[in-house]
What does this fold into?
Amino acid sequence: MNSACRIAEILKVAKSQSPNLHVFKAWASTFNLLDPKDNWALQMEVLELITLLKSEWNLLRTQLYQIKGLPASLYEPVLMITKEVLGSAGNLNSTWEPFQKKITDDVLRQLEWCGHSLKENFQSEEPIPENELKELLNEVQELGENLGNSSLPFSVKMRVFHYVDLIKKAIMGYPIIGAVAFKNVVATSIGEVILNPNEIFPPELEEEKQIRERLKNLLKKSFSILERFPKWYSYLKIAEDLTSRAKILIENIGSMK
It folds into this structure.
């Protein structure tokens, strides 16, 4: 997978949305966002993901520009159309139809062609199996529900919710920007766990062993996902012993004194 392939896949789904929907509803459905009663909250989530999509568009344009002998006239038209579709973020309450019409079959074919051009010139990512991401998302949601019903102090809940939110964002961002979505989870884990292990995972978590174990497993899985992609994982390895120490601390969550 590369940026062109990811954008093409997302626009295929966006093209299938009902033209009568509001723009934010069309994007929410495209991104598989839950539909809360609060439209404002949903719009904020949509804007956050479209911001990621715009960053992927910028990456695509930069990489295409770097391919020697590839005339800009071959890819600039489709990039401009794609940019106009992403510009719908400025009209979230308008109807989706005018933006949907821009996503023609020809536009999708041209994006796929861009994807082939990138594959020939840049290293592509092997996709993470969809069932693995779904399983991880289910675990995160279950942890959030159990945490809400737990007897832990509010301050402790907020610390754990912090990680739950990070992992959720990584899962939602993965189809848009790829494995780098998990970079923030791992980087934050390394930094916070190493600097303040007893504050991030205080002894009170012993009272909620199930929550502690689930959090530990989720962080370990996030590490495991990023480890498959040396391109991104290497950025986090400022020093090999820091990464190793973070893993040890995560393994021993709740038992630190």
Q: What stands out?
A: Residues 38 and 87 are 23 Å apart (CA to CA). The mean pLDDT is 82.
